[in-house]
From TrEMBL:
Name this polypeptide is given: CamS family sex pheromone protein
Organism: Shouchella clausii (strain KSM-K16)
InterPro entries xref list: CamS
Pfam families reported for this sequence: CamS
Length: 384
């Protein structure tokens, strides 16, 4: 078994700037050469990580929030869907916008008002820019909603910035995540109902929405910056029902190069919770492996230990596993021992898969973290 690194933290806050997971302490060679001639814009230094995150642009020393920040939460969408919509879109953007050449900034070209108008139903007089369909036929509002469900749930914008020799920043690329309902839920006068959206409808309408939105952005909606010559990547995301235990997934990505027809590719992605009936049915071998891992962890203490896993699959292969462990303990030494044990079990059961484990008390406070990647030794953080 490989050695396990241990780090005790004075705080539960783990900053991305801390070089916990390998890489050289002096990373100047890997940080893009950025001129700071523009006093208002700077870049957070790039820190090595397996995820290869983008360095972020700062304005007057502060993080730049997008105008639609938090809009999905305002609409009542699940946190897990919104988190993966954001982080997954960054992963997709890396295929076109190399993190060594571009810097990340939340979307600034679409206003909250514009996105809201696009998400509302089309109305020739009151909302001519609406992308969701007008109400359907029917004898009452519930029937009308059911006969013409919303498809577009959210629009997330991310900007990828270039810097020239004079230190001036401009948008070098845009990534858009279009979140599409897999199930449209609606209510009227205390009555609730829902209608499923077929995958074929999500794909067809999503591609139509993408072309319309890209054209509007190139024509200058909301933006003072000319985007006519800026490449735009659009990823289609299937949003799960609110009561789903799994996050949504991306299923198609289109690249819109200036002056060219869009190029579309399929994405085979899935999120699965362990244990669950879906895992047993669709990923039996992985479900059995997680059950054995869970049994071993639970056998370590006489106290009850809750163990739940959330896996991401790409092309039908598990590529990442997150595990939440809830414990009841009497002393910190128990936490240290359990964390060390879990680190060894993770390496034994998931030798070729990146795994992150959060170990929390029943009160919800984070007690320790295990981080494992096949390219390095497992690492643990004990939170003091």
């Amino acid at each position: 078994m490989k050695r396990v690194g241990i780090l005790g933290l004075a705080s539960a806050v783990l900053l991305s700037g801390c070089n916990f997971f390998g890489g050289e302490e002096d990373d100047e060679a890997n940080t893009p050469d950025v001129s700071e001639a523009d006093d208002s814009l700077t870049v957070v230094p790039s820190i090595p990580s397996e995820e290869n995150y983008y360095a972020s642009v700062l304005q007057d020393g502060a993080y730049v929030h997008g105008q639609t920040r938090g809009y999905g939460l305002d609409l009542g969408y699940s946190r897990k869907d919104l988190d993966w919509l954001e982080l997954g879109l960054e992963d997709i953007a890396k295929e076109r916008f190399d993190p060594n050449d571009y810097f990340f900034q939340e979307g600034t070209h679409l206003s909250r008002e514009t996105v809201k108008s696009w998400l509302l139903r089309y109305d020739e007089e009151e909302n001519p820019n609406g992308l969701n369909p007008s109400l359907g036929d029917g004898d009452d509002p519930m029937e009308q909603e059911k006969n013409s469900p919303w498809v577009l749930a959210n629009v997330l914008e991310q900007n990828y910035m270039n810097v020239n020799d004079e230190g001036d920043y401009s948008t070098g690329g845009v990534a858009l995540g279009l979140s599409l309902y897999s199930e449209y839920e609606f209510s009227h006068d205390g009555k609730s109902d829902s209608v499923p959206i077929k995958a074929a409808v999500q794909e067809e309408k999503g591609m139509e929405f993408a072309e319309t939105i890209v054209n509007r952005m190139r024509e200058g909606v909301d933006s003072e910056e000319d985007l006519s010559d800026v490449p735009i990547v659009v990823a289609l995301f299937s949003q799960q029902p609110k009561d789903s235990v799994n996050a949504g997934h991306f299923f198609k990505v289109g690249t819109f190069e200036p002056g060219e027809n869009p190029h579309w590719e399929n994405i085979n992605q899935e999120h699965v919770q362990f244990p669950s009936p879906a895992a047993n049915e669709d990923h039996r071998d992985d479900a059995d492996r997680f059950t054995q891992f869970r049994t071993d962890v639970q056998a370590f203490f006489s106290n009850n230990i809750g163990v739940v896993g959330r896996a991401r699959y790409e092309d039908n292969q598990m590529v990442k596993l997150n595990v939440d462990v809830n414990i009841q303990y009497k002393g910190k030494a128990e936490v240290v021992a359990l964390t060390q044990y879990i680190a060894g079990q993770v390496e034994e059961y998931y030798e070729n898969i990146p795994v992150d484990v959060n170990i929390s008390a029943l009160s919800g406070s984070l007690e320790s973290i295990v981080s494992y990647h096949p390219d390095r030794e497992p690492f643990i953080h004990i939170i003091n």
